[in-house]
Amino acid sequence: MRNDILSGNFILPTINKVEDSLGKEVANFTSSMISALWHNFLVNKSPISSAYWCDKLGNPNTFNVIVSSLSKAGYINSRAITERNWLEIELNEDFLLQHVTPQELEDVRKQFKFAKYRMRNTSATSSDLVRKNGKVQKTGLDRSGFLAAANTQFSFDLVSMKENEDAIAKNLTKSMTKIREKYPEMGSSPADYDEISLDMLKWLQENPQTFTRGTTFLDSRGRAISSSLGKIANPIGNKDFRSLLVIPEAQRVQATDEGADTIYLFIAELNGYKSSEGCEGDAIEHKRNYGLECYLSSTFHTLDLEEEDDRSDLHENIWLQRLYNELDAYYGIDQMTKELALVTGEFNPDTHEHYWSTPVELDAGASMLQYAAMLLNSKALAEMTNMYGEELSDPWNIEGLPRNMVKKAATPMLNIAYEYKHNLSNCWEVLLGNYTTTFRKLGCEGLKSS
């Protein structure tokens, strides 16, 4: 038993007796339930639902015999919560501590959780697996592009990671930090999520390697569900690690002036460029020139990294620094040369052989409004979302209202939540019902002008 626990396993010692008494099918069920109890214990010492497992067995009397026997033997604890009409079961930690020390048990939990949350380099092989109601099946949906994305390899910029380690660590652990501040009596353990996150941050710096997003499933509407979403440092869910992505050498493309122009556009985005309203000439060129100016002047956000709100923009500064370094390498210039270009207004540097290693991010502006523009043949919506017209605009910018409030309010309704059965125009009116008359008038007129 001791060796099993230390190796991360828990096997019921009396499982053969269960089979002799109740049959192989019940013994297999009991083994599955014990595995679930052990898994929950390793993750966060949480119980399992008696109702769920009783329904799974399909025989309440036999289930009661199993629970009663395991409880009397000291393997589990069962607990009734009468106010919730609820019964739950958990492994008896005191039984485990008869075979290992508390520190050894915490080490087992820590190793399990570290392995569970670590990014890996695994190959996805299927593009048509749909996860629906907890089951994986094939429904006819197929997304070969998602499969290619799942197998795209990447690594992290360990120099930038080290330079920003303290702030990244605070962002990784901010949720647990808030909980501990709210409940100071709560204990801590090396197996807690925040401690695992900090260990992971150090491990990434000490073990440079490439990763992939791994197996990708589809939901019932054909959207991607990446298996990496549950991992610490996954670049889909974590902005800091997205800004640290490095393209492997074999996949890098040679730097060109066209590529540099694309980087200028992204630099402009990172520095807050939202609209070309009021500019003269070509809107894209205006945005590109703004990005170039930011590069030449080494423009960053002014952040107090002790403040959580400021740290939410940390990824933008990381990305900016890495892109500025890329351009420096391409042009082979230093800061003094860039400052001179700002003064003279002339920037025609020589270029050097270089391969881009920092990816840029592409994001549709209000993609649901773009779909609406196509379905409704709406010129107004197409212009608002930069699908049509000569000006660049910000679809979330409505005069007199905070941009973040507009986006936060609009997004759920634009995705047509299940409880709404209205057409798009009605959805927009429902959405705007709690806001100003001006907002409502602008929104509805925008839809009706197609």
Provide a descriptive summary of the structure in words.
With 450 residues, the protein is mainly α. It has helices at residues 2-6, 15-22, 24-44, 50-57, 60-72, 93-96, 102-117, 144-150, 158-163, 165-172, 174-182, 193-206, 239-242, 257-270, 283-296, 308-311, 314-331, 335-344, 367-376, 379-384, 403-414, 424-432, 437-448, and strands spanning 48-49, 76-81, 86-91, 130-132, 135-137, 155-156, 216-218, 224-226, 245-246. The chain has four domains: 2-102, Orthogonal Bundle (Arc Repressor Mutant, subunit A); 118-246, no CATH class; 252-344, no CATH class; 367-448, no CATH class. Helices cover 52% and strands 7% of the residues. The strands form four sheets. A three-stranded antiparallel sheet has the order 1-3-2. Helix 2 (15-22) packs antiparallel against helix 3, helix 4 packs across helix 5 (60-72) and helix 21 packs antiparallel against helix 22 (424-432). The radius of gyration is 28 Å and the shape is elongated.
